[in-house]
Amino acid sequence: MTKIGFGIHDHSHCIASAIHAAEVCCAREKLQFTKTRRRVLEILLSQHKALGAYEILDQLAAEGQNAQPPVAYRALDFLVSNGFAHKVEKLNAYIACSHPGAEHAPAFMICRGCNAVHEACLDTANRAPKGMFGGAAQAAGFRIETAVIEASGLCPACQSSAA
Amino acid sequence: MTKIGFGIHDHSHCIASAIHAAEVCCAREKLQFTKTRRRVLEILLSQHKALGAYEILDQLAAEGQNAQPPVAYRALDFLVSNGFAHKVEKLNAYIACSHPGAEHAPAFMICRGCNAVHEACLDTANRAPKGMFGGAAQAAGFRIETAVIEASGLCPACQSSAA
DNA sequence: TTTTACTTGTTATGATATAACATTTCATCT
DNA sequence: AGATGAAATGTTATATCATAACAAGTAAAA
Questions:
Q1: What CATH number labels B2-162?
Q2: I want to staple A137 with a disulfide (CB 3.0 to 4.6 A). Which of A54, A68, A127, A133 is the partner?
């Protein structure tokens, strides 16, 4: 059992299953799930927190690839474009999607104490932004394509230590 | 009449009134509304779009100040901390608040065609993030302090030109 | 008026991200 | 299998965004 997000949860198999899900999805969509893309997703999954592009790059470099920045950014672009990962804008960092496959707008809770990131598993996450914006967007004539929600605050652990 | 956000609207006096509002607020809160801070807010207000820190810096430099990056970032930090401006995370850019004084979570619509930014004037903007997250945050034990919502899509003008 | 906090000036550097182009690999068609 | 066009990668260089650190000045409070 290891810490994930703000809770505890056994993910000894979740890397493998997430990778498998990505494989299946890529086969279905005729996307190339190449070695580097797979490796970057594995790195994100194994850390299970938000990582900067250069942290990923360091990891790749440590494994022998002489990886330059575009290598990481291209893999991340692929993963983000296809819904296997998200960018956390507030942190300029990337995190594996907690529920790939499901159509959703990412919604994160970000701890300002320890930078832990928890992706909310709201099924409202898909509808809520458009619902909230619906009126205003329509009034402005704006066509929403994607939306992100990022909440900052304190996770349980940091609330305790700050207390 | 000039273009603001995605619409048209007369703001010949809105710079002055926003500056005045900031003055009043700073006096009340005993904050120093210094020359640089005022000037940066004026720049943001006059452009009425999201500006990068270095664009602001260029403007300051053009006015004779030999401004280095920390000058802009400090002023922006002040303005953001005190609610006179917001950072648009997706663009790494800053924009004057459309409704300062009102307690609110910023909510933006960002055009991917022209990068125009419109701050939604939802009074739900304040409550909605916490409402949406409420259950999940409580379940996770997370204490939300701030939240931002950023929607991407196409503004009316870019919808027309893309059509 | 001394002291204290805050603000600014300045240099240097760190962190994040992309442009551009040559090369290789992959998918597909014949 | 071989041709070919699309996609991915390797690599160099550089653009863009942001902050650390410290000296000097200015304003507010005691």
A1: 1.10.10.10
A2: A133
Closest-CA residue to A45 (of A63, A20, A71): A20
Report which secondary-structure segment, H or E, holds A161. Answer: helix A156-162
Q: Nearest Cα to A133, choosing from A148, A151, A150, A121?
A: A148
Average pLDDT over residues A90-118: 89
Going from the C-alpha of B138 to that of each of A58, B49, B134, the distances in angstroms are 36, 36, 6
How high is the mean pLDDT of chain A? Answer: 86
Which residue is closest, via its CA, to the C1' of C16?
A92
Chain B residue whose CA is closest to A119: B136
Q: What parts of chain B have a pLDDT lower than 70?
A: 1-12, 121-132, 134, 162-163
Torsion of CA B51, B69, A152, B116, to 10 degrees: 10
DSSP 3-state of A83: coil
Backbone phi and psi for residue A81, each to the nearest 5 degrees, phi listed first: -60, -35
Cα B55 to Cα B59: distance, rounded to the nearest angstrom: 6
Residue-range domain boundaries for chain B: 2-162
Residue B109: which of A118, A142, A155 has the nearest Cβ?
Answer: A142
